[in-house]
Each structure stands twice: as C-alpha cells, then as structure tokens.
Amino acid sequence: MEENQKLRSVATKVIEKCEGLPLAIVTIAKTLKDESMVVWENALEQLKDYVASKTVNSCLEWCYTHLKQDDLKSLLLLCGSLSYDGDISMDHLLQYAMGLDLFDHVDSLEQVRNRLLALVEILKASSWLLEDHRPQDRSNFNEQRCSSLLFTDPYNKFVKMYDVVYDVVREIASKDPHPFVVRQVVGLEEWSETNESKNCTFISLHCKAVDEQLPQALVCPELQFFLLHKGEYSLNIPNTFFEGMKKLKVVDLSKMTFEEVPSSLIDSLANLWTLRLDGCYKLKDIAGIGKLTKLQVLSLVGSGIRGLPDEMTQLSNLRLLNLNNCKELEVIPRIILSSLSRLECFDMTGCSNSQWAAVEGDHSNANACLSDLNHLSSLTTLSIIIPDAKLLPKGILFDNLTRYEILIGDSWAFRTRTNKALKLHKVNRGLDFGDGIIKLLERSEELVFLELNGTKFLLRPSNRMSFVELKQLDVRKSSDIQYIIDSMDQQFMEQGDFPLLESLFLWDLKNLEEVWHGLIPIGPFGNLKTLDVYSCPKLRYLFGLSTARGLSLLESMKIWNCEAMQQVITYGRESEDKDGGTNLELFPNLRTLELINLPQLISFTSKSTKERQSQVPFFNHKIR
Q1: Phi/psi at 180 (nearest 5 deg)?
Q2: Which of 259, 424, 460, 566 is most buried, judged by most C-beta within 10 A?
C-alpha cells in the first residue's frame, strides 16, 4: 500500500512536468507503463532538467531516449524524415528498411514485413505514430497511395504523425551522430561544402519553386539514403549528380520526368540496394540497370517503360520487383525470369498489355511464358494479369505463394481485400486449368467471377481441405451458372464447410436456381456476415432452415429483383430439417435487411407442421 501511494505521488509530479498537455502525458505514461518505482523517480529527475518553455518537445525527447530498441529509434527517425506530405506508406517503409538493412537477424522479405509491422505497432501504442485509414482512390491512380499485397489490411497501409511529433523527431534526427537532413533544394550547392554534408547519412530534398536547380554534383561521401520530392515542378538531374555519393544504398526519385535514368546513378552507385522510380511516367529506358548488381528492391510503379532490358539478368540479388500499373509494359524477356532466383515479391498489377508467350513453341528469343514463373523458386508474393486462360500451362505450380492476386481474363478494377485472391473475367470454366490453378482456387481467401461461362456450377469441393480459407465470394453476370456449390456425388462434405466465408455476393445471375445443389452438410457458412443477392430471377429461395439456423453471425442481408423468390428460407430442403421443431433463433445478429422487388414472395420462411405450432424467433434485435 505504501509503495503504491509513493508511486502515485511520483506519477503526479511527472504529470505536472507535462503541464497538462495531453500528448506529453500520454506518451510519457505509455513509456513508463509497468516500470518500477526507481524508473519513475529517475524519469522525474531527468524531466526537471528540461526547459519549461519547451515542455512537449522535452517530454518527447526524453521518451525517445527511453525507447528500448535501436531499430525502434531508427524506424522513428526514418518516419520523421518521410512525414513531409502527411502520411507514410508502409510499402515505402518496407522498401527503405530493406535498402538500409535496418533490422538485424532477418533473412526474408516476409520477416522484414513482420518486424516492420511489429515495430510500427509499438510506436502506435506509444503515440509516436497514428493510423491512417483514408480509402484509396481507384478512379485516379496515385502511386503514393498504391499499396501492394504485402499490406492489404486497411489498418496497416499507411501511418501518420502528429505535427508536433514530426517537428520533434526531425530535430532529434538533425542532432544524430550521423544526421538526417531534410531541406529545400535552394542553396544546396553551398550546403554541400559544409561539414554537415560531409557527415550526413540521410537527406530528403524538397523542391518548392519552379526555378530551383540541382547542382552538377552533390558531395556527401557518407550518404546512404537519398529522397527527392520535386513537387509539381520540373526538375532536371544532371548526369554527374550522384558521383560524390558512392555509399548510397537507397535512392527514391519518384515522380521525376526524365526519360532515362541519370548515368551517374548507374555508373557510381555500385552499393545501391533499393531504387524507387515510381510515377516516372516519361521513363522509357532503364538500360544499364544491370550494373546495380547489389540491388534488392526495384520499384517502377506507374512508369512508362515498354520492356525490361536483358541486362536485368545480372540482378541476381533482386528480392522485390514492383511493376504495378506499368500500362505500356509489353516485353519481359524469358531469360530475365530464369535469372531472378532470389525474387520473393513480383507485382504486375495493372500491366494489362504484357505480351506473355504461348505455352507451346520455341521461346528462346521471345517473351517469357507463364511457365517461366516456376523458375522463381523463392517467390512468395505474386500479383499478375493473365489476359487469356489458354496461356496457362497445365504444369504451372504456385505451391510457395503465401500472397497472391491473380486475374485471369479481361482486366477490371476490383479492390483486393485479402492476401490470396483469384479473379476470373470472361473465362470459359470448362477449360482444363491444370492442377496449379485448381489448387489456388481451392485455397484462396477471395474469389471473384465475372461473366463466367462454360459451366452450370461454380464450386465443387475435391477434398476435405477445399475452400477452408475462403472469406469472400463474389459472382456476377454469369448467365450459365445454375448452382454456386455442387455437392452431388461428393464424398468430401464435412460439417461446417466454408468455415471462414464472411461475404457472399451474387449479382445478375439469370439462371441461378440454387445456392447449394446436392447434399448439404451440417452448419455451412457459419462465419457469414454479409449476404447480397441482386437480379437472380430464377432463384426461388436462398437456404434451407437448418442452414439458416447456422448463420448466427449474419449482420446484413440484401435481396433485390429476384422475381421467382417465394421464401427466403424454406423447410424440407435438407434431410436434417426433420428436427426443425427446435426453437433456435434465426439471425440473432442481423442489423440490416433489404427485400426489394420480390413480387412472388409469400413469406420469409416456410414451415413444417411442427414449425406452425412453434414459432421460429428472429429479428429480435434492431434492424433497418
């Protein structure tokens, strides 16, 4: 008791040093959480030495010194130097961290990602960083907000900083033994002659006027990180600019308007690990890039390149290649893919014009064919458009993929919400896809089918592990489909099939007669939360009563324009409905119900004789 009273007294004095400022109080409280009396008393003594007029800055500086891990401090300084535009991309942080070799004892890109997420969570918990949930604008491509499959969760795509935290971290970074410098382009040539330029390891340059120009060369012999924000202004990079920065490991020249990479970048930066040229829409030529043999990260998001040069075969250390939204990219020489044995992440989202070679024939001097992806033995993350299902080789294997977004057929914009997404558009489902794609289909977390043809049913489980990871199922404009799931003559039906399915969307299916055709196991769709059914004119009901009773987590049900529907829930569809007299509540978590334009609807649920005698309770909670 006495110890607690003493701790309370010391804590009160610490709070007084914060002068009632919420951010200072929260940050210090989280820093000292679960610490001993000795640590609290030491903190109080140290805070007494700070200048009262700079209370927030002083408190935050003290908290920084008490971060327990060096990589936390390094990451925080990096974030503070990047937060110039308000938000910080997790993808960018990962690429920078890989280039700077920021984390010890990590061997794979996946480990770097996990470490980054863990450290960011610690910094969020201490109020150094904030979450940024702003939605991505898909109608207007913006490479700053274009996130990869590595960060699909909306809560971990971007982070932010309070303005006061940003200012304090920048001040701390500028006093670091190897200072981080954030400055404008103007006066850069004079600055390059100072001692600060000779010692700095990190520089972030900002162009703020149309007449600003870079010097012919910038002499920073210790520099490891170079980031250039050109804003809305045109800015030329002299070919000799990088000659005095031979230790550079990370270069970010995103949104520059050059047509080819500055020659000094290629010739002088032999130690470069990360190169980002996102949004360089005029960039057509990356010849000579093969000289950067230590390169591990190459990001060309939204650039104007038309082909990958043969010299890329020398990039044997490359682990991440991001070609997202390179709409003009057509040529991918076959010899390149067979050389990138360490590649772990390959992103070709939006590369709809890539000319993949046919499976058959001699490809020695041609574009890569899809079977060449099998050479990428380290590949774990893949995002790709396959314009024609006939290009799929039957022997293609994706056993090592832990994240993928594979779109087969015509490209279209559907936001991926999970780590494993397979999307088919205008594809004949009757084609023999081969084992590789079938396995991906059955272990996907998200399946999207648009204008599918050639089959009456959509999904048919082939074993007990089929579709156990499926979370999102979206089927639209597929007039051949009569059944979503077909379990006729199946031996693999298990209790609780589709255990993780959260969302089911059925839109404009002109011939859909049943959601599930055949024997239905006990308790399928137990995790379903959202159900949308639009324009299915032959659908007479959705589920049998026993299936409906298992939908205890369902929150939203919308049924529109289903002209033949007579009951939403029907009795007698399944053999297990024979015990339907039980008085289980239907849809206890339902909050939204929309039944619109159902002219044949007689009742929400049909009932057996027992059901007529025993009312089935549902809608006991508020719905709209």
Answers
A1: -95, 130
A2: 424
> What pLDDT score does 141 carry?
41
CA separation for the pair 592, 624 (Å, rounded): 5
Task: Please give the distance of CA 241 from its chain centroid, rounded to a whole number.
Answer: 34
Coil, helix or strand for 302?
coil
- Quote the pTM value: 0.86
pLDDT given at position 24: 67
Evaluate whether 422 touches 399 at the Cβ level (below 8 Å).
Answer: no
Inter-axis angle of helices 109-125 and 70-82, nearest 10: 80
Predicted local distance difference test score (pLDDT) of residue 5: 66
**pLDDT one-digit tens code per residue, 542-586:** 998 888 988 999 999 999 999 999 999 987 654 444 544 455 678
Low-confidence ranges of the chain (pLDDT < 50): 51-53, 136-141, 143-145, 574-577, 579-581, 609, 611-616
Q: Residue 520 to residues 49, 532, 534: CA-CA distances in angstroms?
A: 72, 21, 23
CB-based contact 283:308 (threshold 8 Å) = no
Q: CB of 208 within 8 A of CB of 231?
A: yes
320: helix, strand or coil? strand
Q: What is the 3-state secondary structure (H, E, C) of 336-376?
A: HHCCCCCCCEEECCCCCCCCCECCCCCCCCCECEHHHHHHC
At 349, give phi and psi (nearest 5°): -55, 130
Q: What string of DSSP letters covers 485-552?
A: EE-TT-S---TT-STT--EEEEE--TT--EEEES---SSTTTT--EEEEE--TT---SEEHHHHHT-T
Determine the Cα–Cα distance for residues 319 and 67; give it in Å rounded to an integer: 31
Estimate to the nearest angstrom the gap between the alpha carbon of 77 and the chain centroid: 24
- pLDDT tens profile 12-40: 666 666 655 566 666 777 677 777 777 76
Interatomic CA distance for residues 160 and 145, integer angstroms: 13
pLDDT at 613: 44
For residue 58, give Cα distances in angstroms to 12, 17, 65, 416.
Answer: 18, 10, 11, 43
Residue type, 483: Y
Q: What angle do CA 463, 468, 472 make, to 5 degrees?
A: 130
Please, are residues 98 and 206 in contact by the beta-carbon 8 Å criterion?
no
